[in-house]
Each structure stands twice: as structure tokens, then as C-alpha cells.
DNA sequence: TTTT
DNA sequence: TTTT
């Protein structure tokens, strides 16, 4: 089955800090809004228009913890994920919909030059975490090692 | 300004035919739903689960006309565009949101072996339109030539 | 580290069957060429030009086996991966380069209506494999279960 | 025709300044290398490995001029484009290949806090250019207005 | 040749 | 609610 693709890629700024939710089984989930901007010149009026689009980003487990630890309101991030429209019953009995981006991968784009405890970053230094750590790929259980190896098998070619 | 990215890429099947809307100035707009599927095995129960996600696709002007002409319910398509969340006032006074994919580019993935007037397609032949025609790139006024040249200038390098 | 992105997405047709290579440790690797097309109208001459671009695709382990089993020359596929430029010493002593797409994910786009042993596919049915099976995500050791769960944890949100 | 996709998306740092080439007809072209990084832990040895991948980026006309003006070695950029493998005859008579990324869109990711003449940027300020200007979409002739409107038509939907 |  |  399938033969389909559902992919979203965003570069934008966090409109708020990461909000965490913890579950009984040990899982967790982080949510934050990302803003993207679009600018164009109105053909009729000639005036410059800027629109901001807001995206509801959802990240799980290990990835959520990394985001909560290193991201804050205003930071720039690249996120890649899937579109998912949740629905729920509103108090008035109507069905409501909310479209979210469920993150599969992300990378931080805001240089971190200062660290609380830490090694004064030069230039564009990133948090003290590996690519491995903040590249999350659909891992479902946080207790497990992340293990989304990228060609890490040293095959001889 | 900007430094942001807002990109969606989908491969899926049309859940319905293209619905057209025509505007006074000569512009038009087509809407259709696309379904994408996701399958996974539930860890607890071991059962196979398939989820279908529905996406509201919006395409404009020349691109809308091409889609209306060549696409029908059930067809497979690749679309690329931007996420846009519209809001409106519901009858109950509440603000409602609807997230749409505003198409910037698309290509048909359903082989068309039969044509009303025409040339029996070999293998995977596409509709009688060029890549130029169905590659729309943000053109705003349908009367204009589409003209989104792709390296079509024969520069000597 | 990192903060970088290296992503390629292709939809195209196989120019040849999948060529497999097996390694001692149990790993394997499949290679095949994919063609993409680009069309445009030359501005000076007004003539229609079509260019074909060839891409060297490399897929590993479980994914390679799935591709070898279900793909053949002429089939259409979506592949997603990373650009990697290999270099080697040519016989003449010069360094040569070859750029490859190392696959991280793929999905088949050619409808399979007939199967050797098999269940006549309805509509657009795909090979007898799950999304799980042909969605490979960087798994390095084929003996392992693939396990790239996509939200398969039934978290209550 | 077509029904294919040829897309590359990179976030990386410039390994060198933009090299410009000007043509007789008024067109121009800029070239620069982009580095992307990949990190993983070798399974056998447990050691951390970082690989750098180099990409040959080619940007045309107006986009090239914007890049030359605002980008320098070390800057971070997002580029989106198509893979294109050039071939040429080497002196030894052999055919050589070089794979390039032909840019269709880009956005700068290095904050510009200082400007030659200018307004001291706060935080993450970008160059004095609009999204319109550095979003190039296949425009072929630089004398023309760029005009890749993004929904700039104020249609009432 | 970049960056962390 | 971000950023430029």
C-alpha cells in the first residue's frame, strides 16, 4: 500500500517556548508554534505586503526533550515532518480541526554563542549535542537509543 | 526579509474532482482533496494500522485550468506548495481555521492511456501538455504567458 | 553539530534493473539509474527542448532487497536521500568524481496490476509489502527489524 | 510529458566566495561551493565520525547578483534547485562529469548585523532586500522584472 | 574550501 | 506569538 508522500519542510522562528506534555508510559511530546513569512508587492496598489503564517509543530520523545532543552522563543529552526489534521468535539457539539506538523527531523539554525555553564562558542557554535541526537527519525520509545544511523556501517564502497 | 521556508510536498490520490471558482478579474481557483496514507504496526497489539490523511489543495489560474482539464477523482498527483491557514467567522461567532496547501508546482502521476481525441499513449504517457504548462510557479495573472523558464536561455556554460 | 541539510527528492523512471552487491558482513547495496525530464521552449528559436537528467541511485540493505524484488527497468519511483560524491583514482592517475543519491526513503509509483503468483491488484495496488517495508530510514544492518515506526506508539493526544 | 521531479534542498556554509561569470547577452551566472555535514557513531569502533559533503552550486542572473552582493565565504544559506550533471571532454580525451545544483530558490541564513552604509541590524537582521528579490524562480533574463508573485493578486477567496 |  |  501507500505509494504516497506527506512531507512538510519549514524554516522559521519560534513564536513561543516549547510546551512539554509527559505521558504515563514514559513518552513525551513537545509543542511550539513556528512563524514563516511571505512578502510580495501588491500589483494593484504597488505596496509591499508581508504575511506571517503560523504552524503548529509537534515533536515527540527524545526529540521533544532536545527541543525543550535548547530552543526558546525567537530561535530559528528547520523542521521536517508530516501534516496531520486532528479533530475533536468542541463544547458546542461541532467537530473542530487543527492541522499540525509532526516532526521527523529538525536542525537548529540560531547560533548559540553563550552557554549557561559553558564553553564559549565560537562564531556559530551549536548546542552540546550531536547531529545524531537532534536528528530524530520517528523513534517511538524514548528509553531506547535513538540509533537512526546514517550510513554508519562502514561498508566498503 | 524573510529567511524562512514554507514548503509542502505531497503524493496522493484525489478524493474528488476539481471544483473551480471563477473571479471577475479573470482569475480562477481550483480546489480538490488529496489523500495520503501512513501504515505502521501497533507495538502493543501487533496489528497493522493504516491512517489516511486528507489535504485541502488550492491551485490558481492556469494551473487550476490544467488540473480541471486533466485530473479526476482517484488520480494520483504530486503537488508542491505552501501551507496557508485561512480563518473565518463561523455562524456561531467563533473563529474557525482551515489549513490549505497552496500549490506552486505539480505533476500528474496517473498514466493516461486513453485520450478523448487522441494518440494512444505509450507506456506512461502524460496528458497533452508540456512540463511548462503544468509546472506552475506562482503566476498570478492567467492571461499572461506562464513563462517560468527553466534554464531555457541557452547560456554557453 | 551540523545545522545543515542535504536532501534530494526525485520522481523518475529506472533506466535499468537494480544491480545488487552483497558484502561479507551480511550487508548489501543496490544501484540503479533514474531519469528525470525537463522541458522548456527555447526563447530564441521557439522550439521545444527536452532534457533528460540521469541520477545514480544507491540503496542499502533491506531497502535494496525490496527494490530488487519489486522494481524493474522502466518503473516509476519516488526516492528521497542525500547527495554523496564519491571519488576514486582512475587508471590514468587522476581523481575522478561520481555523485550519487544515497536513498533514505522511497515509494513505488508504478501500478502493479499483475503479480506472478498473485492477487489481481485493484486500481493502484502496490506490491505485497507494507509502507513500513519500503520506507527505509537509514537502517544499517539488514538482520534487524526495520522498525522505523511512524507515530506507532498510540500516545493519547 | 515529464511527470518527474528533480529537487535538491541544501542548508550549508559557503566554502568560498561567489565567482561570477558574465555573458554577452547580458546574462550572468554565479558559482559557489556549499558544505553539508553528517555525523554518526561508527558501530564497530564507537568513535564519532563527521563527513563533509561538498556541493557545486550554480545560480543565474538576478539571483547570482544578489548572492554575489550579500554572500561571502562562511555564510550559511538554504538553496533549492535541480541536479544537473555536466559533461565535458578532458584533455586526455576522456569524458568527465560534474554534478551541479542549479538554484531555483534560496534564502540567507546568516544574520547580518553590520551593514556597510547601514542601519545597525538588530539580532538576526537580513540584507536590505526583499523576499521577492532573493526568491528567484527560473527567471532567464535579468533585465526583466523578476515577477515571481506569490499569491499576490488579492483574489477574494 | 565551510561550519560546529 | 516569531523574525527582518
From TrEMBL, chains A, B, C, D:
Source taxon at top rank: Bacteria
Bias (Low complexity): 121-150
Spans annotated as Disordered: 109-157
One Pfam family of this chain: SSB
DNA-binding as UniProt keyword: yes
Entries under SUPFAM superfamilies matching the protein: Nucleic acid-binding proteins
Key words of the record: DNA-binding
GO molecular function: DNA binding
Subunit structure: Homotetramer.
Protein name, as recorded: Single-stranded DNA-binding protein
Species: Pseudofulvibacter geojedonensis
Amino acid at each position: 500500500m501507500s505509494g504516497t508522500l506527506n512531507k512538510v519542510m519549514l524554516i522559521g522562528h519560534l513564536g513561543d517556548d516549547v510546551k512539554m506534555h509527559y505521558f504515563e508510559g514514559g513518552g513525551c511530546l513537545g509543542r511550539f508554534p513556528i512563524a514563516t513569512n511571505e512578502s510580495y508587492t501588491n500589483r494593484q496598489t504597488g505596496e509591499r505586503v508581508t504575511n506571517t503564517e503560523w504552524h503548529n509543530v509537534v515533536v515527540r520523545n527524545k526529540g521533544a526533550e532536545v527541543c525543550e532543552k535548547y530552543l526558546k522563543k525567537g530561535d530559528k529552526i528547520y523542521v521536517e515532518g508530516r501534516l496531520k489534521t486532528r479533530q475533536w468535539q468542541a463544547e458546542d457539539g461541532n467537530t473542530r480541526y487543527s492541522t499540525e506538523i509532526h516532526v521527523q527531523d529538525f536542525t537548529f539554525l540560531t547560533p548559540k554563542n553563550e552557554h549557561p555553564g559553558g564553553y564559549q562558542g565560537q562564531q556559530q557554535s551549536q548546542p552540546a549535542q550531536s547531529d545524531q541526537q537532534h536528528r530524530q527519525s520517528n523513534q517511538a520509545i524514548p528509553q531506547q537509543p535513538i540509533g537512526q544511523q546514517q550510513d554508519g556501517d562502514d561498508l566498503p564502497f
